[in-house]
Amino acid sequence: MRRALDTVIERYHEDPAGSLATTRLVRETPALCARHLEKQHAWRPALAEALAERAGTPGDVTVGHTVRAAAALDCLNVALDHWTASDGRLDLVDLLDEAFAALTGA
User: Fold this and answer.
1) What is the C-alpha to C-alpha distance for residues 28 and 56, in angstroms, rounded to an integer?
2) pLDDT bucket at 106, cuts 50 / 70 / 90
3) Considering the entire predicted model, what is its pTM?
4) Which end of the chain is more exposed for a tag (fewer CB within 10 A), N or C?
5) Are 51 and 1 in contact (CB under 8 A)?
6) In Å, what is the CA distance from 70 to each residue of 17, 46, 51, 73?
7) d(C-alpha 60, C-alpha 20), whole Å
8) Mean pLDDT across the stretch 75-79?
């Protein structure tokens, strides 16, 4: 699931400073933040379906698949929060890996 978020953070690799400014703007503007969370909520079913497909049960999305998809998106948000709080000094990919490791208890 962690690797599925690589496309989401791809822009970070291309333009870290611009990504930081955009992320900060979204986080600090209530309407933009709400819209961002709505978009992520809309991604959850697709992520859950991808998990079901990986499990060999396409079309049979379970509560577990949906919970893992939601947890993955929360890992992304926690990593973004820590990244913006550090003014981009911390590595976003490392933070995302750390968030997933914490989720799995590793």
Assistant:
1) 41
2) low
3) 0.86
4) C
5) yes
6) 27, 11, 12, 5
7) 38
8) 94
| pLDDT tens digits along 14-68 | 999 999 999 999 999 999 999 999 999 999 999 999 999 999 999 899 999 999 9
> Locate tokens 């930081």: which residue?
20
Please list, in sequence order, all residues whose beta carbon lies within 8 angstroms of the beta carbon of residue 99, skipping any fewer than 6 positions away.
75, 76, 78, 79
C-alpha 92/C-alpha 62 separation (Å) is 30
Give pLDDT, residue 36. 94
Mean pLDDT for the stretch of residues 2-24: 87
3-state secondary structure the chain: CHHHHHCCCHHHHHCHHHHHHHHHHHHHCHHHHHHHHHHHHHHHHHHHHHHHHHCCCCCCCCHHHHHHHHHHHHHHHHHHHHHHHCCCCCCHHHHHHHHHHHHHCC
Instruction: Please name each of the domains of the chain with its CATH number.
Output: 2-104 (1.10.357.10)
